[in-house]
């Protein structure tokens, strides 16, 4: 059964090939096959897989909603193996993206880039579509998955690519916010097509920022140590971008740690805090300059809203970062 409310896709499948086609259309080409329950014998595995290919026992529910350039899906399914490999990726393939999954029911295993991680209910895990990965669920499962276009990750893309296939609990740092947003979006009964474009853009930006804050702190060799303070630092910075006094010193003071400690924790992520704050501010200023609802607000006022008080400096910084001045950005958006 398939239903659709404009931008919402809601479908139930008893055929694994149809489910594979739906999931591939939402994200990237995938191979999905039934898996036997945990502990099954080889003969039982073969019988189970054959039976499910013939529609015996296989069942999946897929619900998806678009949030600007992001896709949020809720998937419930009987045991399956999901593969992204050479066989599922044709020469003309879909754009690369980062996928983040919130496991809600059932246990699974994620394999990518030589790493393997068990995923339990309440865990968040990321994997990317640019290289092969495998997901194996040997029991019925429910998961919420967000797909983020690779370019939307900006300077954090390569860093996050090194943090895939490492499950982290959704109960720590800023992760509960990610879990709450993903769950809420997947439960929406109406789509976002009628929402003002700036509203969905802001929502998408918030989701990406939270994902970056969540997984940038997961080091390649350690899935948790030191991550919480780094999450807290970036969350503090996100919340205080409007403060012109936001700096390495003020952040260290707010967290009761030394400047060198902040630098050490962020260095593990490849982040220099001053540059990171500047880029975050410029991103939000550019977003506001392109927002029709703010067309009557002056550039200086928008810049001050995000903690930049020097209009001359802003022009140089915007040109260096985006190749255009504030006035050119507004003109390109039809707001000049």
From TrEMBL:
Coiled-coil annotated spans: none
The protein, known as: AraC-like DNA-binding protein
Annotated InterPro entries: AraC-bd_2, AraC_XylS_family_regulators, HTH_AraC
Domain HTH araC/xylS-type: 231-332
Organism: Lipingzhangella halophila
Protein's UniProt keywords contain Metal-binding: no
GO MF assignments: DNA-binding transcription factor activity; sequence-specific DNA binding
Keywords, alphabetical: DNA-binding, Transcription, Transcription regulation
Source organism, top-level taxon: Bacteria
Upper lineage: Bacteria, Bacillati, Actinomycetota, Actinomycetes, Streptosporangiales
